[in-house]
Amino acid sequence: MNWKWGRIAAIMGAFAILVALRATEKTAVTPTGAAVKPAATQAKTAKKSVAAKTAVKAHEEEVRTLEGYVEQEKFFHDFLKKNHPLFTDYEKNGRLVGKYQISDREEEFVEFGGGKAFAEQNNRHAAITYRLGMESILDLPNKFVGAKKCGECHPVQYEKWSRSRHAMVVRFPDEMVEIPGKDLNAPLYPGSGSKSAVLPQGITADSVYAIIGTPRTKYGFLDPWLVRGTYHIEGGTLKDRTGTLVAGGNQFSRSWAESITPETAKKIAAYVPGFPTTLEAFGDQSSPVWGTNSYGAKNRKSMLFQPASSYCEVCHSFKFDFKTQNELMAALGNAEELRKHTINKGISCEE
Predict the structure, then answer these.
(1) For labeling, which of 104, 157, 290, 318 is most exposed (least CB within 10 Å)?
(2) Residue 149's closest CA among 318, 13, 349?
(3) What are the tens digits of pLDDT across the range 10-40?
């Protein structure tokens, strides 16, 4: 029996030593008496902490807050105020007709959304917006590959999409296949007596980044600084920065240029009193040319100075392959350079 008790005692002793060692690991202290976790535990905790921080950072990068979206655009506006010809040439030299209103994301996404009015009526805050893009032209570098790349594996879908209006909402001047001779300054429906062209007075194909719209309804333009065209030029050209920049008279309207001629308008007015039969009768939406109206502007009175990042890009999407915002800024004002770096345009699957 003694040998059994001896073995039991040895086992119990070894167990006691093991327990003591584990306890020592857990309760080790520094010279000051502070408890220190064992190395293995510390390493495990550190890994968890790093993983948690990485997850939080990834989440923050993935999730775009409304405030973050508004703040992102400020550097773009600062650049434009120092470089766009509206400020550097036309306003500076007194060759500007009509007042401009700078329109940014805060106005478009916050004020126009109705959140402030909702807060006043319901005594609680709310973010209400009818448009908020997931990724902007200002998000660089982006992850877009472009519709043509997608078409390498999905040719049938790409061909179908490329003939759709989704693909035509943003086009370069040389892609306007429906325009005779691709002359964007020639009257589009001369047979009706209208002199309205795709581009308004003083705006030439080499002074725009892209044409916005389709032959179904209307055409507008984005200038080489990626600002919505809410103006025209009288007595000169935007390319040469000559003449006078005038608010409004900026958008081609197919219905008025092709079908609702002044004679037709008079016939309609006989049944609909007050229907406009002269350019003056159009009021703020008028222009110097029948078939061209003022959109985002009031004829010779006011206009929005509205970068694409504030408004256009959400519905008329396009993306660049620039790696940094500085590369984008360096290309602004150069339509050809911007087109060269355009990796995608139109409403595609990636959008």
Answers:
(1) 157
(2) 349
(3) 555 555 555 454 554 444 444 445 454 555 5
